[in-house]
Design brief:
By secondary structure, this protein is mainly α. It has helices at 2-20, 25-47, 64-83, 99-116, 138-162; strands at 128-131, 134-137. Strands 1-2 form a two-stranded antiparallel ribbon. α3 (64-83) packs antiparallel against α5 (138-162). The radius of gyration is 20 Å and the shape is globular. The termini are far apart.
Length: 174
């Protein structure tokens, strides 16, 4: 009797278990990284006060606004190339634009990344690509993009701390 109950239950669970096993674990991990880094970078952009978007630690460095603008441009380039889709045409903004303009643009580009990467799978990871004067594979540019997001989050965190503010990931859990 137990067998008659267990077998149909197991049969019902098989599709769920099969779906849980991804056929593109690298692409899944990269999509997750894009979402996590996007959330953290957006939060850092929100934490910095509008009057500090012109802040830069030394004359040789970018302003905070320039960092946000640079990220937005990089997102469109990286995510369109990696996702194999055309980047959207956008009006030009600069690091001297308002906080509202720059954070809205950054959000647009992370939203675009989520869309552009939605159909990314592991079947083309070894495909050769060229971007920013460099040659690599799709997987290589995925690593470069993830590294770039981490680098700029670290940079943003330093700018925030130099202004007496805690970066989003350093705030205590509520």
């Amino acid at each position: 009797m137990r067998f008659r109950v267990a077998l149909p239950c197991l049969a019902a669970l098989l599709p769920v278990l099969a779906a849980a096993q991804s056929t593109s674990p690298v692409a899944d991990a990269f999509r997750n990284e894009a979402k996590t880094r996007g959330k953290n970078l957006m939060a850092a952009a929100e934490v910095m006060p509008a009057d500090k978007y012109g802040f830069k630690p030394t004359p040789a460095q970018m302003t905070f606004g320039d960092v946000v603008n640079h990220l937005a441009g990089g997102n469109d380039a990286f995510c369109s190339a990696i996702g194999g889709v055309k980047a959207p045409a956008r009006t030009k903004v600069s690091g001297t634009d308002s906080k509202a303009t720059l954070t809205a643009r950054l959000k647009e580009t992370f939203d675009f990344c989520n869309e552009a990467l939605a159909k990314l799978d592991d079947s083309k990871l070894a495909e050769p690509m060229n971007m920013f004067g460099m040659s690599s594979t799709r997987a290589g540019f995925m690593l470069i993009a993830a590294d770039d997001w981490g680098d700029h989050y670290s940079q943003s965190s330093i700018y925030l701390r130099l202004n007496g503010l805690l970066p989003p990931t350093a705030k205590p859990a509520k």
